[in-house]
């Protein structure tokens, strides 16, 4: 991980690769690296689909090691959806493989003058870039089958589907899982469109012949990793809840808490929730010969994913996440798990952010395009997006654009990015994160649901404004740091409750790099990243007024608790005053 | 003009009218009134289509008098297109009639819960509001025919077409001309969508039985008006150019100057310009039995409009303005005057901003939807907008949304509003206005073309950055003041060159109201309006970064002069530091 691969996609005759030492970005991984590079090298007022934007793909500090949970890949750029800085991260295999190939980052730069499509193959022998217009408009699953035929099955792929090629603001970037399926996505912020604007369809990685990255102090590293894994296994969330039911265990919990946004955020509880809960989902998966427990990358010990088969027992999609089941499910009044799984597959296949798509379809339902609960209609809309019909183009541009195009007032977005699966009136801590994160509305940017609802890392009443700013602030800082390690964010459940597990993670980094970082250093790193991201956004034209929820959250109470979002604007403005 | 008519469109059982004294808004007219009321009463972060937004319709200080040129109507609200404050003004009859009926403003407030459509009839006996769903989706021309049958031909109408009902961001508000045709539009910023969101299709005004507004000092007023008219008739632009050829006299002038944006702002000169010039247009109009000279409201002495008949001599549309001929013409590589006139008619009929639509179609051409120059294809797109097909919905949302939906980088907008007919690289003064006006890109907000190109009010080299900030600043201040008088902005040509004509206008206001205003008061008024508008925008989240042209204007030179926009960001930030 001592070099950066820069690919100038605007070079005459096609993209040109250049390797350079990691230089000023030494010691950075994941989100720290993507956000710093974007801040330093991308003009904040540039067009997100123009030559001046850069797509940065960076494994984390511990990716490619034997450390557990270290398979997250950060992808950053100026977002075409939000207009601000963006880091979206994904699981799957590429982070590990890219790190073992020695790259701290791949940076796609410039802009091609033709509309040719290229594939990039990277292995121990170097980088090969080839024009391949036969890949045009291939959805992700077909594309990966083609790559397997071409390069064998010892590969990991980073790719875009049809949505990315069409430069849709809801386009994701897919990463393949251990079974070489394009199921793990850097979903948010339309980064697939940036990759599409660079004319790059797929990056194929093969680390055959490369070694596992080795720590400075192998013994200490091994020891720390062991403690770390034990800590994860010992915590109720990471050791029991997530492995058994996956993230979708949250459906019943949030519905019970009255914070499950239903019918485009009109109410906080959904009649059909039990039909699409994690419990029902796990049962269905097991009964059909799928898997209720499965890791999205090698080295995962939480294994919160699964395999969802159709009624005939054939693979349909990976286990849809809670946010996906919510977005395409309760948010749209839909409670048919098979139809939701089909939409999850279509999102993965066309290369779309499941949250943005589900919320956008909810907005379309509010506009009267189809009725709430019409799952077949929703599936049809998904195909229109993937194929790029005019209506599909609208929906593929995300909820904010769809709301504008159809003249809808109830559009749940912050900084143009759709709100995820937690109503900010009934889970006010996550409301603070939605409003203030430099990423736009993003539950993963500071998951206050943990403390508001799951009572992890303390207990802050979800229905009241008190304490939410501090909670969100601390979680946003911690998250920015964790997103730089390559570690899955879910380790935070154990880290928040168990100081020894947090220490074990620190020990892993210290042993690997020969450092003596403390908790304060982690906090300082998180703060530095947020400061960098906010500086970019300020220069891109963001103000305190962009750190606000849509007004209906403060004016219209949500049932069953009949509360509005109560954190005042002046308090929101204190989140980054530390 | 001592009362305000407020209509609560959200009242139970349908819109409810309430008259109140003008109160705190006394002494204000036109833009001063609309912007002050919006600033004081509309929450800057509200949804533009929500209950909290207000549509303010205000004649100017001298509207309804015998004063020449006083027929402009200001309409204001928070704009669904820009997200900022908006004043768009239009000619036609309604300003005069509304003023004579005694109203300083009509304010549409609240939001209906049903989708019923209402018409409002106002005459000397008061206000009548009726539900009339038979008007749904009527285009403006059919609507006005219906109103004539119902209310006779002594009326003036303010209405929306199908675009406003569909709440499109490019929707205009139509005002009828002396022949009771819906040809004069408050075009910019999507105010038609705001009217549509209030469920009001048309406001029918009848001033039968009302008197001309009478001045405090009738003799002085008459005398001043006489001087004012003589001044207008004596100036080359207002006395000769505009009457003879209308605004489209500018096609040849701008093309010659290399500032005529062609093929979506790719070059500054258009091969086909002579085919669509004002000279050709006037000749065509005269030959077909139309009119090359015609006033858009009674009391106009410039008479820059006209009547454009089709090949068979039947009325097709009013004389398309220069900006319309450019937007649907050269900007799209189209040089068929009849097809351009047809699009002008369709804009008026469906109720759309011609500039926003032409620029949007140019962006769609850049996206490859149809070819540059394909005028029949462009007409088809216009119909799709008017009918609200999905593709039409995209285009009706304006250039910024269309650019986002189709992934186009070259999108000529500021604050999401399309740039008008002057390339800011070759006419740098107007570039300063585009960038900094609180309205978004708007040539009328500070028409530096006058001094850059026409050499009115001085001479500032259009190709250089020097002097442009001061020029735009002074013009923006003067314009804000003129927009408050109800006077047509075109009087500015004479005012800038002839101090005695400026004094005559001042004398008219003073004689009418018994005041002693000086030039300094006019400047102070203009500054106060701009300050109010900028304060609203700041609270809506606008920063200096929003006072910028799209980056391609500063990075890509435009032929034939091969210049880029040279006014620096720091200079732009000085426009409002007076």
From TrEMBL, chains A, B:
Residues 1-209 form the Aldehyde ferredoxin oxidoreductase N-terminal domain. Its cofactor is [4Fe-4S] cluster; tungstopterin. Coiled coil: none annotated. GO terms for molecular function: 4 iron, 4 sulfur cluster binding; electron transfer activity; metal ion binding; oxidoreductase activity, acting on the aldehyde or oxo group of donors, iron-sulfur protein as acceptor. It holds the Pfam family AFOR_N. Keywords: 4Fe-4S, Iron, Iron-sulfur, Metal-binding, Oxidoreductase. SMART domains: AFOR_N (SM00790). Belongs to the AOR/FOR family. This is Aldehyde ferredoxin oxidoreductase.
